[in-house]
Amino acid sequence: NAGVMQNPRHLVRRRGQEARLRCSPMKGHSHVYWYRQLPEEGLKFMVYLQKENIIDESGMPKERFSAEFPKEGPSILRIQQVVRGDSAAYFCASSPFAGGQETQYFGPGTRLLVL
Amino acid sequence: KQEVTQIPAALSVPEGENLVLNCSFTDSAIYNLQWFRQDPGKGLTSLLLIQSSQREQTSGRLNASLDKSSGRSTLYIAASQPGDSATYLCAVPYGGATNKLIFGTGTLLAVQP
Asked: Using an 8 Å Cβ cutoff, are B92 and B4 in contact?
């Protein structure tokens, strides 16, 4: 059973471009979480999705950021018009069920660098 | 609001030493607490998960304890090895059914050969 897959592993964008980060959860997992790790800071929750639904986006910046988890295919975290402050490691995690008892399995992350 | 802190922020020990990493949280109403390891440039590896009903959990040279009433957890590493060098993070789920993880700031461990 493959783990959580994220691609690309590294992404370089110039200011103003768009960044698309993909996450394929573990097989059988229908719950996806995105976290961001800014340089010299801890991991912060961004958004929680189930198939075709955004459940909690309380950690998402109000502008330029969006996320989706379609019925088919990976979850996508999209950042429009990137700025240097978006440079960070973005991690995706998945779990088979909702609720506090379930552990989350993390992917290797996508390192975004904005020039 | 749940806040998670870890001390020390960094720790350097000689190989073979036993060590303790600390994690504290402000809201004791947690389902569980999880310890992760993060290697430079890599993702997170889950080490131990302690349910709220448990006092401790062991895996090999690692032992994690949980004291909900005092809002504390410790990760004990026995007979440390250079391969244990990494950042160690603790996290608790928060937000009811959302289960989003609140992470501590991490402890950067260096085990000197």
From this structure: yes
- Which tokens in the block code for residue A81? 């018009």
Across the range A53-65, mean pLDDT stands at 94
| Closest CA–CA distance from residue B85 to any residue of chain A (Å) | 18
The confidence score (pLDDT) of residue A100 equals 58
Task: Please report the number of interchain residue pairs, chain A to chain B, with beta-carbon separation below 8 angstroms.
Answer: 68
Chain segment B3-54, per-residue pLDDT in tens: 999 999 999 999 999 999 999 999 988 889 999 999 988 889 999 999 989 9
What would the pLDDT profile of A71-108 be if each residue is shown by its tens digit? 889 999 999 999 999 999 999 999 887 665 678 899 99
SS3 B82: helix
Nearest CA in chain B to A101: B31
Number of helices and strands in chain A (H, E): 0, 11
Closest-CA distance of chain B to residue A49, Å: 9
- Comparing C-alpha atoms, which of B4, B31, B15, B2 is closest to residue B90? B4
Q: What angle do CA B10, B12, B63 make, to 5 degrees?
A: 80
Is B32 close to A101, i.e. CB distance below 8 A?
Answer: yes
Q: What are residue B63's DSSP bridge partners?
A: B58, B76
CB–CB of B98/A55 below 8 Å? yes
Give the SS3 label for residue B9: coil
Strand, coil or helix: A4: coil
Q: Is B99 on the interface with A (CB under 8 A)?
A: yes
Cβ neighbours of B98 in A, within 8 Å: 48, 55-56, 98
